[in-house]
């Protein structure tokens, strides 16, 4: 249950951290909680006041911690529960809130529940998962149905030496939890309450769209992939029971607590559907993270395209941001973000390494002044960009790529194309090691990090160099965030009606807020010059990423990735 009063997250600027890649404090090449604690003064200076941490629980780490083997234990690479307590206290001392990513749709196959479920058919844990007999066809035992998983191949994995299979909508080491079992749901509430009692300020709830499944487990009759599986994600996305489960979660965990819950819904939800989850009146969650603005170029499945054929779809981006704004404004809260840990780096997706400085500043400005609570991805503030690898195998640090690459090869896509595609789109890039300085290992660790570094940390894409340069991306971020957090500006952004200016302009993303202040953002999203007519009276230029202004007869000449934040009369 929520209401339409102001919450702390209406005044928050979020910052997403991949703990394994942020800062190593104990010299083992892996980032950890103490490392994050040591960087809080930096984060406070940057101006963010909400941290969202990717999963920190014990995990074999086949899926960067989304495969939890023990919810009650912190991953030893990251530290202990005492380190988490110290981090919570350190954040709160600095006025920073901390939310944890909680993956509850599945566990790791190394979780003791799953081990018990397999070992003993009469164990109550058996029904914590979906374990079913395979289909007998002639002499063969086949999976119970033809559903494909998100990570490629079948949704079912055979239990060795048996005719049994278990369901996994993500990787095969990540069996899905059976939320239709009330005893399982109670376990989940106990876990979530434990972390809230410890003082965390909320959760990102991973993969909530998939909590309920089509329990008939019938074959899909949709067209099959070359390996015979079928991408029929409706069988385990946004099913009606999901809302009942989340309502119960709210009842048992979040109701009455001033905490932020963000359900991750990926590509699977419209604003109308989302309203049932997040509306102020009786939505069980506070916000949802969708992926609608994260892949607004044609890079998804773009195996046949060269890099220079990939173009940001500016019209679609404007439509997508506005679709969510129109659907939710006044009815529900909305998070804002460009990219996250499931896609490539923002700069490589919508910006340009050639115009690193200009495009990073431009992308921040668009995001920061739209309606909602902004979330920045760590490293964005210095313009970190995609990693480049010469071998497909190098991408297997992210295990999900193994099954995806196998299904692409089965579909006949050549290795050259797969490699180019991975370099362009792989999510490993957005989890790369934070670049603190030009020193060895980018100041991340005193030892070689667990994954290769992006060499550009020696070329100015690092915190220390950018701190020393008043015109850097980092200093622009700091100034822009400070300004965005001013009470009147925040009020204007959160409450002043938002409208797009010239929605049909193919290159420029421009909008205005007419609230206590009148603000406008005008941004060229292209690596070339374009023109933009603007007839309102300009009082002041608050943010700008070029040294001079080209404006004549009500027309802006906008150079590559040029952006303005204007105060209007
Ligand atoms: C969504 C997460 O964002 C992604 O990183 C993860 O692989 C899947 N859920 C499975 O947990």
CATH structural class of the largest domain = Alpha Beta
* Low-pLDDT stretches: none
Overall average pLDDT: 97
CATH superfamily of the largest domain: Glycosidases
The number of domains: 3
Supply Rg. Answer: 24 Å
Structural class: alpha/beta
- The helix count comes to 15
Ligand inventory reads: 1-deoxynojirimycin
3D structure, described in words:
- With 569 residues, the protein is an alpha/beta fold.
- The protein has three domains: 8-110 and 177-212 and 221-477, Glycosidases (TIM Barrel); 112-167, Oligo-1,6-glucosidase, domain 2; 498-568, Sandwich (Immunoglobulin-like), CATH 2.60.40.1180.
- It is built from 15 helices and 23 strands.
- The chain has helices at 33-38, 40-46, 81-93, 112-119, 182-198, 241-254, 271-278, 314-328, 346-350, 356-368, 400-410, 415-425, 463-468, 473-484, 487-495, and strands at residues 14-17, 50-53, 57-58, 70-74, 97-103, 131-133, 135-137, 140-142, 156-158, 164-167, 202-206, 260-266, 287-290, 335-336, 373-377, 498-500, 508-514, 518-524, 530-533, 538-544, 551-552, 555-558, 563-568.
- The strands form six sheets. Strands 13-12-11-5-2-1-15-14 form an eight-stranded parallel β-sheet, covered by helices on one side. Strands 16-17-18-23-20 form a five-stranded antiparallel β-sheet.
- The two termini are 40 Å apart.
- The mean pLDDT is 97.
- Bound molecules: 1-deoxynojirimycin.
- 1-deoxynojirimycin binds next to loops.
- Residues 63, 66, 103, 170, 206-207, 264, 341-342 line the site of 1-deoxynojirimycin.
């Amino acid at each position: 249950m929520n209401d339409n009063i102001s919450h702390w997250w209406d005044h928050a600027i979020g910052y997403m951290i991949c703990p394994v890649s942020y800062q190593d404090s104990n010299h083992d090449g892996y980032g950890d909680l103490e490392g994050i604690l040591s960087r809080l003064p930096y984060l406070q200076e940057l101006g963010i006041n909400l941290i969202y941490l990717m999963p920190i629980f014990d995990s074999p780490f086949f899926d960067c911690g989304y495969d939890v083997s023990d919810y009650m234990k912190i991953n030893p690479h990251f530290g202990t529960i005492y380190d988490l307590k110290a981090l919570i206290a350190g954040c709160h001392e600095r006025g920073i809130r901390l939310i944890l990513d909680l993956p509850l749709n599945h566990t790791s196959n190394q979780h003791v529940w799953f081990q018990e479920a397999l070992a003993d058919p009469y164990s109550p844990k058996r029904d914590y998962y979906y374990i079913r007999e395979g289909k007998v066809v002639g002499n063969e035992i086949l999976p119970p149905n033809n559903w494909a998983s998100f990570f490629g191949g079948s949704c079912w994995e055979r239990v060795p030496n048996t005719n049994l299979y278990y369901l996994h909508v993500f990787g095969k080491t990540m069996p899905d939890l059976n939320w239709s079992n009330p005893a399982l749901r109670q376990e989940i509430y106990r876990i979530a309450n434990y972390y809230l009692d410890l003082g965390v300020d909320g959760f990102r709830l991973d993969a909530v769209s998939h909590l309920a499944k089509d329990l008939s487990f019938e074959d899909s009759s949709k067209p099959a992939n070359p390996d015979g599986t079928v991408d029929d994600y409706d069988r385990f996305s946004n099913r009606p029971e999901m809302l009942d489960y989340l309502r119960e979660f709210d009842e048992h965990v979040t109701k009455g607590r001033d905490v932020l819950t963000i359900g991750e819904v990926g590509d699977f939800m419209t604003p109308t559907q989302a309203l049932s989850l997040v509306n102020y009146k009786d939505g069980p969650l506070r916000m949802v993270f969708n992926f609608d603005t994260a892949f607004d170029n044609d890079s998804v499945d773009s195996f046949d395209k060269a890099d220079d054929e990939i173009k940001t779809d500016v019209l679609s981006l404007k439509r997508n941001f506005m679709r969510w704004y129109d659907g939710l404004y006044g009815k529900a809260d909305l998070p804002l973000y460009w990219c996250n840990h499931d896609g490539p780096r923002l700069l490589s997706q919508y910006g340009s390494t050639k115009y690193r400085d200009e495009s990073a500043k431009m992308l921040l400005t668009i995001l920061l002044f739209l309606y909602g609570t902004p979330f920045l991805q760590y490293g964005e503030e210095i313009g970190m960009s995609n990693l480049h690898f010469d071998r497909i195998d190098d991408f297997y640090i992210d295990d999900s790529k193994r099954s995806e690459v196998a299904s692409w090869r089965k579909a006949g896509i050549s290795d050259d194309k797969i490699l180019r595609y991975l370099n362009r789109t792989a999510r490993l890039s957005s989890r790369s090691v934070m670049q603190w300085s030009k020193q060895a290992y980018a100041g991340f660790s005193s030892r070689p990090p667990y994954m290769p570094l992006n060499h550009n940390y020696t070329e100015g894409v690092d915190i220390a160099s950018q701190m020393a340069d008043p015109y850097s991306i980092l200093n622009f971020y700091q100034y822009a965030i400070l300004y965005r957090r001013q009470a009147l500006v925040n009020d204007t952004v959160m409450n002043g009606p938002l409208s797009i200016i010239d929605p049909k302009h193919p290159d420029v993303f421009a909008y205005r807020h007419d609230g206590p202040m009148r603000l406008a953002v005008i941004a060229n999203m292209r690596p070339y010059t374009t023109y933009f007519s603007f007839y309102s009276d300009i009082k002041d230029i608050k943010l700008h990423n070029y040294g001079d202004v080209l404006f004549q007869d009500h027309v802006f000449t906008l150079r590559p990735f040029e952006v303005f934040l204007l105060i209007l009369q």
